[in-house]
Amino acid sequence: MKLLSDTLDRVKPSPTIAVTNKAQELKAAGHDVIGLGAGEPDFDTPQHIKDAAVVAIAMGKTKYTAVDGIKELKEAVCAKFKRDNKLSYEPNQVSVSSGGKQILYNALMATLNEGDEVVIPAPYWVSYPDMVLLAGGTPVIAQASVQTNYKLTADQLEAAITPNTKWFIFNSPSNPTGAGYTWDELKELTDVLMRHPHVWVMSDDMYEFLAYDGFKFCTPAEVEPRLYDRTLTTNGVSKAYAMTGWRIGYAAGPVELIAAMRKVQSQSTSNPCTISQWAAVEALNGQHDFIADNNEIFVRRRNLVVDMLNAAEGISCPVPEGAFYVYPSISGVIGKTSAGGTKIENDEIFANALLEETGVAVVFGAAFGLSPNFRVSYATSDEALKEACARIQTFCASMTD
């Protein structure tokens, strides 16, 4: 009898975490490493949110709570959806978990059976396919392309749906590309979904507030209200509120689905951190001026990175609408040889050579389902970004045919 489950043979560790860990190990060993792999703002959590956590501790709010969140936080989530997305929910339609990833995992575990398919647009967040596999489902990858700015078309979605499709996972602005769908672009997708009433929609809106250049965020159930009864709208406080380590994600959807997710969570982690929940209440209900200030910094960093990467030989980098990532193509360097003697046959080899020869850590495109590319997180200092991009330029310029 072997120790490990066969389920683990279907999945792989997170490539983004692996890159971050490798960069940290090299840095700890004394190497000059610039990590551009982590999807984490470098801003501190705003003071009024931290103060709310301190107050909760002082008041003794440190005990177990209801499995999927305190009443006050669920009410704050309902108010947020009404205020920002024109979506009306009651607290019994809300689930709160230990991060956005757990929300998605709970929903998939609660709904997928063997043979169920989940349509996932590529490029995708690295965890989507593996969570589907862990839950016993089958990921169906619908390939977008740089020609559509990495956004899925209605025809591509239509072609990916079968009688076995249970979920369509939607993410805008996107990790890893930063691409955001306009109202009209999303309406084309929701029109397709209306023709397939057996398909549920899982909308990952984690980067909702990180939108630039006048881009207007929208979410599927807002664009097509008739999808409301089969949509799980998910979000969290990690990115916009710089609360990654607080681990609070949330979602709203049909009562039956939320109850099933609660059942899964009751036998896994139980309630998310009590103190973090009270901090999240303040994050959602309190002042949000800092988001616009942070976004100004993100726009400056995005423009810096896009300009410098487009100046690198063999690299082409679109301008994203949101999040804090860019997803440049390296088709122009495939087949070349680096100064260190590495032949660049694919984007994973490119990323490894870049780290070994220049100390710049990025995540290779194959991890996100579309190659040849790599992902840069520009959620770090201007100085680090300038130096990293300069090293990438030198790395590419030194390649030979």
Automatic annotation (TrEMBL):
It catalyses: L-aspartate + 2-oxoglutarate = oxaloacetate + L-glutamate. Gene3D superfamilies: Aspartate Aminotransferase, domain 1, Type I PLP-dependent aspartate aminotransferase-like (Major domain). Its cofactor is pyridoxal 5'-phosphate. It is an enzyme of class 2 (transferase). The keyword Transferase applies. GO terms for molecular function: L-aspartate:2-oxoglutarate aminotransferase activity; pyridoxal phosphate binding. Its EC number is 2.6.1.-. Residues 32-392 form the Aminotransferase class I/classII large domain. GO terms for biological process: amino acid metabolic process. Keywords: Aminotransferase, Pyridoxal phosphate, Transferase. InterPro entries: Aminotransferase_I/II_large, AspAT/PAT-like, NHTrfase_class1_PyrdxlP-BS, PyrdxlP-dep_Trfase, PyrdxlP-dep_Trfase_major, PyrdxlP-dep_Trfase_small. Belongs to the class-I pyridoxal-phosphate-dependent aminotransferase family. Homodimer. This is Aminotransferase. The lineage of its organism: Bacteria, Pseudomonadati, Pseudomonadota, Alphaproteobacteria, Rhodobacterales.
